[in-house]
Write a structure and sequence with these properties.
about 200 residues; eight-stranded antiparallel β-barrel
């Protein structure tokens, strides 16, 4: 009788330990990193049109529950103004809380979430009679959506779309060999749109 009771206690202890290990090792509590490769461009910028340019972004974060995760994201893009002899760059640093619409489902992950952060744009222009630099920084708020499909236990491949509304705080134009002309009053708001592929590790 004592031996039977001891076996039952040992079995219960093993089951409890296995359950604890399983809860600790759940994918929903793991951290992950995502690399985004795509194209993007600013839109609705008065007086300047842009073609699509390459975008590289990295995101690092983790689940806080089956349906929610928190991430920090860095985005970099080469701007392609539709103006001869001009180029530019775009950098964005954002906080992105994500909603996982399918919960802890392992094979497919549909994500949607807001983002809030800072951005900076800068570039050069060189016209026939004038050349110089231009730079802008400000706040941004937007939305990120994606779909990821597991190809192994450690890798998922998917697609993403990201929209950011830009709230400029300062715009500066510097003519070659001249002073900076900066303005922080009543600046035109604009957007940045990007889409492409995502690799999650």
């Amino acid at each position: 009788m004592k031996k039977t009771a001891a076996l039952l206690v040992a079995r219960a202890s093993l089951l409890a330990g296995a359950s604890l290990l399983a809860s600790v090792a759940r994918p929903a509590l793991a951290t992950d990193g995502t690399v985004f490769l795509g194209v993007g461009k600013p839109t609705d910028r008065r007086g300047t049109d842009f073609d699509w340019g390459p975008v590289l972004a990295g995101s690092l974060g983790g689940r806080i529950s089956d349906y929610a995760s928190l991430h920090g994201q860095l985005t970099m893009s080469l701007l392609d103004p539709d103006v001869p002899d001009s180029d530019g760059n775009f950098v964005q640093l954002a906080f992105v809380p994500m909603i996982h619409l399918l919960g802890d489902r392992a094979d497919v992950d549909l994500v949607l979430g807001p983002q809030l952060g800072l951005y900076r744009m800068w570039g050069e222009f060189d016209f026939t009679i004038i050349s110089g630099d231009i730079r802008e920084w400000g706040l941004e708020a937007g939305l990120l959506a994606g779909a990821f499909f597991a190809v192994s236990k450690t890798l998922s491949i998917g697609m993403y779309v990201e929209y950011s509304h830009l709230f400029p705080q300062e715009l500066c134009v510097e003519i070659r060999n001249g002073p900076d002309d900066c303005d922080d009053d009543d600046l035109d708001e604009s957007n940045f749109l990007s889409f492409g592929l995502g690799l999650r590790f």
